[in-house]
Design brief:
Helix content: 25-40%
Distance between the termini: 16 Å
Number of helices: 11
Structural class: alpha/beta
Low-confidence stretches: none
Shape: globular
Radius of gyration: 21 Å
Length: 353
């Protein structure tokens, strides 16, 4: 189901600022992030490690480390600003209305507790379900996420499951309370490519069945190609481009988005893959202007002086790049990316979208 952008969003983040106390100073991890999540959609947040994407969702869930804090902005959910919530306030939200699928399924599960009991625990705590009913529902969930011989596996421990099967259990636990929002924080990173595809298919399948809204965090543009309705591209604690999946993949406008797409391999790539030069900035002292400018061969002089505003490219597509200004010099995207987009369009015409 695609998002209905005409409706009110079920989650709205406005100008979120998250900082961390560190020995060397204050780390400016999230610097004025805003986005909306709509009913039934998958919103992907994409960027390199350290871009602030996971910190953003941890702030939404109220699970920032002790040295982290929200220093500005709002997180609106059902008419309440969760940025002001205490730990007690999150009790009826986290794991119930908003659930999280962690990156590493082994560390997310209790190694000395049987799998069935861990799923039952989620049902008993969140839904106050009687034990017999919780066991029946746990078995149902295990079957729903594709665990074979669920009755046998119910009595086994996490070490007796493969990585992919453990991740299926983590998804079952996350969906146990029938949440409105499912946050998936790099859920396929530790898995091989074949198992990755199975887990992505499972998330799509569960989303279609329950109409849950998904926030999907990843550094891999390839993973979100068949997952996302809309994509936010993050760099240095800011969203630099947002649009529908088609807009981001076929009409990218920010040089950082160009770089991410150019470095993504596919089966038909004949050119040498692009590597983004340099490294992400030190967020204790982020650079003035556009943070990506020192790594961007298309950067204008203005990029080093002033951070660009968001330029509206369509009703759903915005990019924070001075290259989008009407008076900016015309710069074409890299040849490797042009060829990739051409191949994607040809493949869609051949097979039908």
């Amino acid at each position: 189901m695609e998002a209905n952008l005409n409706k009110e969003p079920i989650l709205k983040v406005n100008d979120l600022v998250v900082n961390f106390n560190a020995y060397a100073g204050t780390v400016q991890a999230v610097r004025g992030v805003s986005f909306e999540l709509y009913e039934g959609e998958t919103l992907a947040i994409v960027g390199e490690s350290g871009s602030g994407k996971s910190v953003t969702t941890k702030a939404v869930l109220g699970i920032l480390p002790k040295n982290g804090r929200i220093d500005g902005g709002e997180i609106w959910y059902h008419g309440e600003d969760m940025a002001k919530y205490t730990e007690k306030d999150f009790y009826n939200i986290r794991g119930k209305k908003i659930s999280l699928v962690f990156q590493d399924p082994l560390s997310a599960l209790n190694p000395i507790m049987k799998i069935g009991k861990q799923i039952m625990e989620a049902l008993i705590l969140s839904l106050k379900m009687p034990k017999a009913e919780a066991k029946a529902r746990a078995l149902e969930l295990m079957k729903a996420v594709g665990i074979p011989e669920a009755e046998v596996r119910f009595e086994q421990y996490p070490f007796q499951f493969s990585g992919g099967m453990r991740q299926r259990i983590v998804i079952a636990i996350a969906l146990a309370s029938d949440p409105e929002i499912l946050v998936c924080d790099e859920p396929t990173t530790a898995l091989d490519v074949t198992i990755q595809a199975q887990i992505l298919d499972l998330i799509n399948e569960m989303k279609a069945k329950s109409n849950v809204s998904v926030i999907f965090i990843t550094h891999d543009m390839g993973v979100v190609a068949n997952m996302a309705d809309r994509i936010c591209v993050m760099y240095a604690g800011r969203i630099v481009e947002v649009g529908t999946a088609d807009e981001i993949f076929y009409e990218p406008a920010h040089p950082y988005t160009w770089a991410l797409l150019s470095s993504m391999p596919d089966l038909d790539t004949k050119e040498k893959l692009f590597a983004i030069p340099g490294a992400p900035p030190n967020m204790i002292t982020p650079p003035q202007g556009d943070a990506f400018a020192p790594r961007n061969k298309y950067a204008l002089a203005l990029d080093f002086e002033e951070a660009p505003p968001y330029f509206k490219l369509s009703e759903t597509h915005y990019a924070a790049s001075w290259l989008c200004h009407p008076d900016a010099p015309k710069v074409e995207m890299p040849e490797i990316l042009k060829n990739r987009i051409k191949r994607m369009k040809e493949a869609e015409e051949k097979h039908g979208k």
